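Troubleshooting log. The previous run stalled partway through. Resubmitting the same two chains, unchanged.
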Amino acid sequence: MSDLFEVPLVVRGRVIDDFSETFKGRSGSVGFKTADANKYIDEITLSRPSHMADLYSISLEDIIEYLAELGPRLALDENTHMQQAFELSRSTSGLSDSILRYAYETIPGSFEREQTRRIAENLVGAAYLEGWVTIREGVKVRAFGSRAVHIIAGNVPLVGVATIIRNAITRSDAVIKTPSNDPLTAVAIAQTMIEMAPDHPLSRHVTVAYWKGGDEQFEQQFYQPRNIEKIVAWGGFNSIKHISAYLQPGIDLITLDPKQSSTIIGQEAFDSPQIMARVAEKAAMDVGVFNQEGCVNARVIYLVCGTDEAGLDRARQFATMLFDAIQKLPDSLSTPHKHFDPALKDEVDALRFVEDEYTVIGGRGNEGAVIVSHDSEAVDFARDLACRVANVVPIEHVDTAIRSVNAYTQTIGIYPDALKDAIKDQLAYHGGQRMVSLGGATNPPADAPQDGIEPLRRMCKWIVDDTQ
Amino acid sequence: MKPYLRSLLDDPKNFLAMRYGEGFKVDGCDLDDFYLQAAQKKYRELNGQVAALKRLSKEQGIEDIASFDDLIRVLFPHTVYKSYPLSFLEKSRFDKLTKWLNGLTALDLNAIDASECASIDEWLELLDNNTALRISHSAGTTGKLSFLPRTLKEAENVNLILRDMIRDWYGDDTGPDLIASPLPYIQPSYNGGYYTMLRGAELRAELFGVTEENSLYLYPDRMSADVCSLAGRIRAAESKGEGGSIELSPGLMKKRDQYIQREIDKKDSIRTFFQQAVDKFGGKSVFLCTTWTMLYDAMVEARERGIDNIFGKDSVLVSGGGNKGYDLPDNWKEVIFTGLGFDRAYELYGMSEMMSGFPVCEHGHYHIPPVVIPFVLDPISGESLPRSGTQTGRFAFLDLMTETYWGGFISGDEVTMSGFDGDCECGRKGLYLHSEIRRYSEKEGGDDKINCSGAPEAHDKALEYLLNAAQ
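Second attempt completed without errors. Output:
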């Protein structure tokens, strides 16, 4: 392809239009051209910690104001950088255009004052960010920013957005390594920051670069305690494996591992046909919003409906309603998947050879499917469920669902709320990290812990002033 | 229709009655007419007998095969032979597994009571002892074993095809007839097992005159199907939380540990093994089945010790597996053949679901015998690509040689096929695949995609060994 997208390198307030390196996209998607990060490694590294000082010439309120001013400038219909990022994402992302557009349109809202103020307060503590806090007589504590590398996920553009907000609020210096499935969104935001306030400390502490994960020449030089203090890594085994080779005392690794989410629906869902329909609609949101591309999306749905014939009938009835509800989700939130995973399709197709064990609703083309297990067991390919394919597992007792939770479980959508309250502690012991009312899985609070940890507090260096 | 094709149409097994090379004298443009009629005939024979085919046909609204499009709609997905739920194995529900299998074979398994079986090995033994089936299973790298319901008779035909291919591929009688004049047999692997390659060798032993004296194996024992399935079962259990914790019998754990230890020691064992092969069969002609990479390692070792021309000139090597994930130097073939002392080698593209492999010619093309009807499908829509020119897409086929199971299958491989309207430079006629073949599931280079959604991956060292071993 001759008209490859050009992805500039942004280094602390400078936009470098060097497109000498070409990176291939996945099959069927376009690649992009960008700078060879190795060539600019001296600029990408902030080897002199004293250069962090300018971040302390501004107040937290200045930071919140800066972000509030930045937000509206990222509006998709006005910002050409964002438009380009959107264009490139259309081919690199698993999301359909209509959903991507919606996702981009929500970006400005993430920068609103109320939102960022809540993040500062609830995820770190405004007072600690702003100055020294006396915790007892003679002892004071303050949260300082750090020099951090962020290896971000690209399945939804909001990961880059959140990273830039977190970096600003914690007064950190970020080097964002973009993923090949979203190489441009973070760049577009950084470019907008530079255009808005070229000399502002916040504009000058964001670097956005692409190098191939595992590029030893670059990573060996870069991942040194004299250059960075924290690595914030999204992604799976491979992404972490590269990094773990460079870990040493002085580098703090914050991992946001890949996770999956599930659903537990109590027998109350069957109290009336109306309730059942409403529950199916809520579950459809958890499954289908953003085409099940997120870690928050539901995949396996445990249904306390009994496992006898009558129970199975209820499960099948519910699954049909769920399938219909998924199909009815608005285009801005969910569509048939544009790159339906062929391996998943093969698995779904194979289920027709075990019709005693499973009922499949849908799954003909790329519309998605709801698979009902006839036994209280999820399908063998449960971890590969995607592209709006969910698995309804009928169970006799909620304990079966609780026992299925493991260290890789992130969100669990639960109906009704009373059941959530009753089992949330147990779910937490097993590994669940966020228990949410059914229907709310894909709308996680930005000002609450993530994946069972507090990434913002960990991004800070907690410094003590001790007068004895 | 040419008499040769007419004869195959009467009975595809006539492929065995005629010279192997005849199969590569049919013009590509003559094949489709034969293919369609042969597919029709096979479909009519098996549709009433294989329940899964009947069900798929009903679902697709197919009652007869009037076109290739009809046929493609009733090809099985490659996941079919592992479509059973893993919980059947975890809970030893071999009665259910038998019932599942019953849907995939024309044989009647209703009388088989497998409820007492406690392991896969036991179940496979039960079927061996009480039915005509000689099931073989896949390596299970991805977690589950595929079980292919092939009969003893079919397995024998696979080996007859192999004999014919070795004898006639480079011209009639250019190679030895391994049934008429057996050669000592060398297999750097287990001495039997239900795993496809081992099963094939095991069922071939009598036919090819393999005895204890004239054979050599890397390990003296059979490979356990249960051990092969462990990696997948452990991984599945991990992703099921506390509810998935599996209890493995101490016997099985011991086998697993032994298996892992062997993987760790493999390089040393192979060195010893080839030394034994030199001691026992040096200077003699042998029959050797192995992969290029394993052979290369052994021959480099031999070269370092100043050993070459190990075996007799009339030896036979059947190889495959490509050299994926392994960087061989440019002169790798020279290293191998100098060491071996012979150069009669046969390389095949094939898969356990197919009874005939496709031998490679001197131009690197895999030639398709007329008893396999090949298709190249659009990987997205699943529709057939035009049957002309050169086409790249998902490989699918109907194997005409199967008698008790439906040989229609959509693979997970991307291939490039030619030969509809032009012959290979080697002079053979008919359809052929180009050398570049890859799995659709393999990621392309340059990919650096990171998602926040995902699930457990192999962290357990033991599991890694099991997975590597199962390659």
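Takeaways: Chain B touches chain A through 52 residues (CB under 8 Å). The longest strand of chain B covers residues 408-418.
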